[in-house]
């Protein structure tokens, strides 16, 4: 593939460094087997075909589920899901016209795809009246247009990221197995004058927007509206962090395109909201709810009151397996900004997926969500945040962090094709590993009695019942040759962990073990205050454990320690809202794929 970039650059008069950097920001040089990205982009140059946009019925846009997470709201009706087609979704068609190459070949042939991308850049350069220069600095305007962004700020943010890649350089082995290198060029300083020739509108950056200055952000507010008869939508006003500490940032994917997702969060009668939406093709960011307020996104009221929710345009499986580098980079900058602002540790106990959020009560566990799924590259995400996931122990350390090589880790999944859900998914890099009942590949998967009360775990891409994912930390239960067992959902769970290609590394952290004399310890889906902590007029639910057991002989890693809290907010009038804070202390543990809570008096906590 390096020769394909050199040939295309020479043929179309595009600096090779520009071509390589644009490709990296769009696809990280992956070919993805001719399959579409979450933004309907194909190949290393992410040439887009809007007709290939995925569809799914697995997430909150369908109107089912309770994203507020306390059962207080009635179901809402389904909303329309198809948005209009933007010009950015038709670059494959334009490349076909410029090169005379068939659309099918542009999708499937990496060399043709790279040539198509080079032809687009050259065409954009000509349209600007810019010189066909060998200097990468002169191509800023064409690069900005390649983003497909509809505003000047978003186009500039994309171009700035491309030139950051050029200055810093990058080396990677993409999915075709051929090592790719873009040498650093720190001397390149782009000529930003050409951006004005695109004549793109500028965003009015509202005072409410909370994001770094380097990110193109807009304010599209979610409505806080009284609907009458005691009903309101679609979030709750609060005063965080003055009223409550923000512990989490929750990563979601939308399972619809960007425009329909904006319609969903803008619906005053809906029961879904989140703080930010990120667009796939250019990484553009929209904020909907102030971070001081509580959005309805995680399906667990306790987590919602302690979290900020980020929705990423994408499809867990049905529309493609990969997320754009542009979106990863914007998201990483935003998460770093929010983590710094609210003193949130950059680890997987605090930066969690929607699929890591526990069910609030036993009857909620089975229907909890699965996004962003096994194809979200957590290791790369943390690298971009400047908080890389690394081992910090040795062979004697009692705890491990799951850390497979994303590109080389290609476990079996089924269900990516909704028309043929039993078929295997196309092999692809993954952040997850499968967990077995015994140390052999053909052993059954471990069981999750909450996720599958009436059946067994499956290899479905949507089924995380027997999976551990990058960054999560567990206590080692046993080792046999190339196999390692961890404690997981009250049982011993085995995974293949050869020394030549490990999928877990030593990682020191705190460990919770049942106090002597206890046969087992209950686990909970929230850190709930004791009922007697509630003031007069505030009814508190009893503390109800989940259906799992934490046996005496097992141990689990501790992610954070907190005091039980509950935000009582069931009315549009905020004067009746109360933060109920008790004295009951909890430890958050990595109990399975999801985090859960144990009472401090039930366990002994030690260092690993």
How would you portray this structure in words?
This protein has 608 residues and is α+β, with helices and mostly antiparallel strands. Among the domains are: 2-198, Orthogonal Bundle (Lysozyme), CATH 1.10.530; 514-607, no CATH class. It is 20% helix and 21% strand. It has helices at residues 2-12, 16-27, 91-99, 103-108, 110-128, 140-146, 152-168, 258-265, 301-305, 325-342, 378-384, and strands at residues 41-42, 47-48, 170-172, 180-182, 217-219, 225-228, 231-233, 235-236, 248-253, 276-278, 285-287, 294-295, 307-312, 351-353, 399-402, 432-434, 467-469, 473-480, 483-488, 491-496, 504-506, 510-514, 520-522, 549-551, 556-568, 578-590, 595-599, 603-607. The strands form nine sheets. Strands 5-11-10-13-9-14 form a six-stranded mixed beta sheet, sandwiched between helices. It has a five-stranded antiparallel beta sheet with strand order 20-19-18-15-21, with no helix packed on it. Strand 1 and strand 2 (47-48) form a beta hairpin. Helix 1 runs parallel beside helix 5 and helix 10 crosses helix 11. It is globular, with a radius of gyration of 24 Å. It starts with a helix and ends with a strand. The relative contact order is 0.11. Mean pLDDT is 91; it is low at 74-85.
Q: What's the CATH first level of the domain at 2-198?
A: Mainly Alpha
Number of strands: 28
Using only C-alpha atoms, the radius of gyration works out to 24 Å
CATH architecture of the domain at 2-198: Orthogonal Bundle
Range of helix content: 10-25%
What is the arithmetic mean of pLDDT? 91
Q: Enumerate how many helices there are, as a single number.
A: 11
In the predicted model, the low-confidence regions spanning at least 5 consecutive residues are 74-85
How far apart are the first and last residues' alpha carbons, in Å? 45 Å
Structural class: alpha+beta
Spatial order of the strands in the main sheet? 5-11-10-13-9-14
What portion of residues belong to β-strands?
15-25%
CATH fold-level assignment of the domain at 2-198: Lysozyme
Shape, please?
globular
Largest sheet: 6 strands, mixed
């Amino acid at each position: 593939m390096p020769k394909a970039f050199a040939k295309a650059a020479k043929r179309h008069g595009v600096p090779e460094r520009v071509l390589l950097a644009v490709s990296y920001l769009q696809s990280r040089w992956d070919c993805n087997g001719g399959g579409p990205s979450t933004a309907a982009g194909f190949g290393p140059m992410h040439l887009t075909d809007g007709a290939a946009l995925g569809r799914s019925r697995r997430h909150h846009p369908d109107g089912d589920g309770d994203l507020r997470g306390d059962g207080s709201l009635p179901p809402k009706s389904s909303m329309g899901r198809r948005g209009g087609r933007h010009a950015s979704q038709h670059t494959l068609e334009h490349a076909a016209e410029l090169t005379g190459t068939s659309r099918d070949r542009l999708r499937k042939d990496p060399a043709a795809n790279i040539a198509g991308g080079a032809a687009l850049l050259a065409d954009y350069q000509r349209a600007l009246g810019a010189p066909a220069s060998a200097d990468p600095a002169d191509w800023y305007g064409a690069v900005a247009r390649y983003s497909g962004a509809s505003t000047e700020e978003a186009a500039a943010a994309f171009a700035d990221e491309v030139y950051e890649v050029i200055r810093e350089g990058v080396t990677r082995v993409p999915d075709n197995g051929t090592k790719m290198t873009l040498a650093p060029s720190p001397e390149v300083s782009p000529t930003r004058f050409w951006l004005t020739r695109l004549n793109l509108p500028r965003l009015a950056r509202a005072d409410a927007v909370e994001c770094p200055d380097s990110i193109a952000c807009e304010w599209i507010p979610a409505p806080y509206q009284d609907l009458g008869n005691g009903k309101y939508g679609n979030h709750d006003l609060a005063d965080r962090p003055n009223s409550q500490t923000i512990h989490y940032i929750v990563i979601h994917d939308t399972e619809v395109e960007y425009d329909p997702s904006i319609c969903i969060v803008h619906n005053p009668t809906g029961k879904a909201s989140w703080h930010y939406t990120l667009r796939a093709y250019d990484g553009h960011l929209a904020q909907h709810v102030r971070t001081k307020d509580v959005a309805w996104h995680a399906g667990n009221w306790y987590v919602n009151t302690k979290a900020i929710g980020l929705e990423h345009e994408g499809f867990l499986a049905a529309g493609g397996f990969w997320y754009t580098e542009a979106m990863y980079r914007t998201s990483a900058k935003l998460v770093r900004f929010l983590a710094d602002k609210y003193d949130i540790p950059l680890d997987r106990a605090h930066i969690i997926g929607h699929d890591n959020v526990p069910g609030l009560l036993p009857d909620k566990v089975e229907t909890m969500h699965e996004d962003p799924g096994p194809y979200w590259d957590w290791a790369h995400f943390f690298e971009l945040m400047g908080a890389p996931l690394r081992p910090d122990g040795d062979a004697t350390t009692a705890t491990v962090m799951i850390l497979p090589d994303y590109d080389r880790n290609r476990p079996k999944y089924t269900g990516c094709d909704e028309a043929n859900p039993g078929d295997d998914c196309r092999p692809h890099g993954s952040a997850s590993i499968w967990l077995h009942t015994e140390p052999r590949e053909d052993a059954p998967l471990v069981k999750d009695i909450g996720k599958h009360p009436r059946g067994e775990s499956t290899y479905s891409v949507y089924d995380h019942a027997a999976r551990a994912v990058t960054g999560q930390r567990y206590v080692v239960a046993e080792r046999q040759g190339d196999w390692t067992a961890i404690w997981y959902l009250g049982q011993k769970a085995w995974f293949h962990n050869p020394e030549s290609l490990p999928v877990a590394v030593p990682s020191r952290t705190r460990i919770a073990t049942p106090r002597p004399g206890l046969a087992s310890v209950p686990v909970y889906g929230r850190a709930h205050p004791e009922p007697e902590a509630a003031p007069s007029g505030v009814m508190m639910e009893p503390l109800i454990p989940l259906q799992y057991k934490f046996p005496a002989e097992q141990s689990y890693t501790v992610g954070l320690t907190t005091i039980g809290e509950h935000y009582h907010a069931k009315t549009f009038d905020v004067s009746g809202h109360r933060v109920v804070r008790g004295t009951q202390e909890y430890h958050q543990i990595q109990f399975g794929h999801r985090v859960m809570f144990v009472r401090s008096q039930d366990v002994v906590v030690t260092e690993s």
